[in-house]
Recover the amino acids of this structure.
């Protein structure tokens, strides 16, 4: 599929594309550019933009061109700019953001539509990739009988599953979403459960829920419909939380990795 505003090259057949010919920080996007990015995002799930020099202010400006900025409900943002999360790890880190496969903040009643991460510094000796998987393909590769079984089910997504180990005294958001959703732009169906946030399926006994979710987590994370996003300094990723999951691969300890992320507020519940 062609786009008038930029050139695009798929990274894999199922998820991810490189975008060339657009500068995200030089000026605000035109309406045509913004619309093309939204359409490309709904098709490829994650877009990669190389050689992008962004400040905190231009990152926030970029995010606001796609909607209001979503305040993270699990971890604190930057003091001066609470809409911005600093993604940082070094030799003192005990954990990193995104250590389990997840769709960002699916525990929120209206999860963020998408996330934009500007990577300022990558590990000098390699590593630090982010893995992305296609939740479109995960649904489409289910058997017809499994699709019918899951079609009427809902699941609880609980922030305490992901964040409770860091601060067990904090109250986290919880939400109930359909196990199978559809993307509001593409119209394609999506398998919408993930290992970091989904606690249980509501309409079946817990033992059945646990067994089904184990299968669905493994199925969603299969390498056949996943890709490894290799970062470089001053690279930007824009991913769609409505049709992808991702995992931060912490294979670079004790090196330093630094980036800043904004999340775009969703305008509707998963349906």
């Amino acid at each position: 599929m062609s786009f008038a505003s930029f050139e695009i090259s798929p990274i894999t057949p199922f998820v991810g594309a490189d975008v060339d010919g657009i500068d995200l920080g030089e000026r605000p996007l035109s309406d045509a550019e913004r619309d093309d990015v939204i359409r490309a995002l709904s098709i490829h799930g994650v877009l990669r933009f190389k050689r992008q020099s962004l400040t905190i202010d231009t990152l926030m400006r970029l995010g606001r061109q796609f909607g209001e900025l979503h305040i993270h409900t699990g971890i604190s943002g930057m003091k001066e700019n609470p809409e911005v999360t600093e993604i940082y790890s070094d030799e003192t880190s005990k954990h990193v953001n995104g250590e389990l496969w997840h769709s960002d903040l699916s525990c929120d009643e209206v999860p963020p539509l998408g996330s934009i991460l500007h990577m300022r510094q990558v590990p000098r000796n390699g590593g630090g990739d982010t893995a992305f998987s296609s939740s479109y393909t995960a649904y489409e590769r289910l058997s017809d009988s499994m699709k019918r079984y899951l079609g009427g089910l809902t699941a609880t997504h609980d922030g305490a599953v992901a964040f409770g180990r860091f601060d067990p005294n904090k109250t986290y958001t919880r939400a109930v979403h359909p196990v199978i959703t559809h993307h509001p732009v593409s119209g394609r169906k999506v398998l919408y459960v993930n290992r970091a946030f989904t606690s249980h399926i509501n309409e079946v006994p817990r033992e059945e829920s646990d067994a089904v979710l184990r299968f669905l987590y493994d199925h969603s994370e299969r390498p056949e419909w996943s890709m490894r996003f290799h970062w470089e300094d001053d690279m930007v990723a824009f991913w769609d939380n409505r049709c992808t999951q991702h995992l931060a691969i912490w294979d670079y300890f004790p090196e330093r990795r630094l980036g800043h992320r904004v999340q775009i507020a969703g305008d509707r519940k998963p349906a």
